[in-house]
Structure formats: C-alpha cells, structure tokens
C-alpha cells in the first residue's frame, strides 16, 4: 500500500512538472500521456536475428509480413490497427511493438479498444511492454505520421474529445479514408452496431470476463507451442469460430456495417471490434476488418498503389532481450 501511494505521488509530480512547462490552454496529448509513463528505453539499438522461414499465405488479400527482410522497414500509405487491449494480460504488446518498428505509413489509424478501460477498472495491469507501445505510437506521431485515434467501447472515455487535436494525435469518433484508387472507406470501431454492447451491457461485461479466462488459457497453450518450436496460434479464435451462434453474429455485424457505410455514401467500411481480420465484398460493399492484437495479431494496410492487405505478425523479427539480472549492491564496510 505504501509503495502504491509513493508511485502515484511520483506520477502526479511528473505530470505537474510537465504540464507547468507546456503552453497555456489544453496540453498536447503526448505530454498528458507521457507524464504518467516511465522512460521506455526504446531507442537503444538491438541486434536483429534473422526470422524463421515460413510459407506465404494463400489468400491474395493476405500478406505474410515475415517475408520482409529483418533489416528493412516496409512502407505503406496507411495502416489500421485496433483491439490492442493494453492493460490486459492477453495483449500481445511485444508483437505489436515489433510490427510498429518494422512498418511505417503516412497515416496510422487506431481503430478503437487500444487501452482496455474495462479491465483497468477491475485491477491495474501495466507492464513495461504496454508502456513501450504507447511511447512508440507517440514517437511516430512526433516524427510526422498522421495518427488518427477512433475510440471503441473499451476506451469510450476518449469519445468526449471527438474532433479535438491533442498535440500530434487527432481523436475522431469516425473518419473517412480515401484510398489511392479513389475509394471512400468509412473508418469506425463498430461497437455502436453491436446489439449486446448497446442494449445488454451487463451481458457484454459477463462475456468480457469469460473471454479473459479463455485468453489466459490461450497464453499457456501458446507457451507450450513456443517451447516445442511451433508458431503462435489462437486457441480462443478457433473456439469462437466453431460456435454457430458466434458465426451468425459475425455475419449480422458485417451486413449492418456495410449498410451504414452505403447510407453514408461510402464505398465500404474499415472496422475492428469482433477480432476477425477479413477483406471481402458484402452486399456489393467492401468490408475490411483489421483484426486484433490478442488473437489474430493482424493489421490492415494500404500499399502505395492503393491495394488493401491484411498483415499477420505472428513471428518476432526482434525478439525481446532476456531480463537482466539485478546487480547486488556491494556491502558497505563496517
């Protein structure tokens, strides 16, 4: 308890110091967030071992990012990531951080559920890797990437800032992206078209708790797979897609999303929320879901030519360094 109070006092002191040094008015979002984040140490150079060879995906709309050489950075016109769920044990922060290090874009869309406020209210969980992801996103914004943050249901507290630009990050309830080929795509998280979230919130919270248990089993399952030399595979996603009601729910969600996109005069929709990465035509509209970073470890990208692809990042190009052993302090002479 004493340690927690001291930690909170230190955070508030850093926040006050940084806010006093900023200009009058609303402080930039990077300053407001970084005040509560300890240094990440992301800039330290690290050796990059060669990735394991893996077969390419068969789907033309899917791209195996592991084919990219480890010493190169892939550049895209736009990148969409969603459902990161920072603040939960199920978040695959190391994989997302590795993805962000090896992929650059002119625009970066954060399509909701980046920070899981639901879980953080139940209990605080914030390891260094989650802090590193936040710092990396802020650094991309400072270096010229246009970062657009579209909140979801787990980080809905950010929706009150719709239309405001905090420093280098713009918060939008939704957005319209124009591809290089001239397609207008509506960008939104998608929870507003989820009947359970909107009309049976208690059931959504219950489902979230059960989902957390499944993700815990998923972590142990993949820990065993990693020791046996197998790549990441989502047990939770497999179980979810075997349930007929879940499949029917996903189909209904897709139809509702494209219908609203058509009503808004767009050629399609880009969303997240249901943790199922996909690109396909639905009712004559383009439906794109960028997946998530707790199950599928996927993102949606637009190439410089305007082609949309799903990128899966299930192998680390830069594996995290093993934790250093703490040095014992030398005993003071008597």
From TrEMBL:
<dbReference type="InterPro" id="IPR004843">
    <property type="entry name" value="Calcineurin-like_PHP"/>
</dbReference>
<keyword id="KW-0479">Metal-binding</keyword>
<keyword id="KW-0464">Manganese</keyword>
<protein>
    <submittedName>
        <fullName>UDP-2,3-diacylglucosamine hydrolase</fullName>
    </submittedName>
</protein>
<feature type="compositionally biased region" description="Low complexity">
    <location>
        <begin position="44"/>
        <end position="56"/>
    </location>
</feature>
<dbReference type="Pfam" id="PF00149">
    <property type="entry name" value="Metallophos"/>
</dbReference>
<dbReference type="InterPro" id="IPR029052">
    <property type="entry name" value="Metallo-depent_PP-like"/>
</dbReference>
<dbReference type="GO" id="GO:0016787">
    <property type="term" value="F:hydrolase activity"/>
</dbReference>
<dbReference type="InterPro" id="IPR043461">
    <property type="entry name" value="LpxH-like"/>
</dbReference>
<feature type="domain" description="Calcineurin-like phosphoesterase">
    <location>
        <begin position="79"/>
        <end position="276"/>
    </location>
</feature>
<keyword id="KW-0472">Membrane</keyword>
<keyword id="KW-0378">Hydrolase</keyword>
<keyword id="KW-0997">Cell inner membrane</keyword>
<keyword id="KW-1003">Cell membrane</keyword>
<feature type="region of interest" description="Disordered">
    <location>
        <begin position="44"/>
        <end position="68"/>
    </location>
</feature>
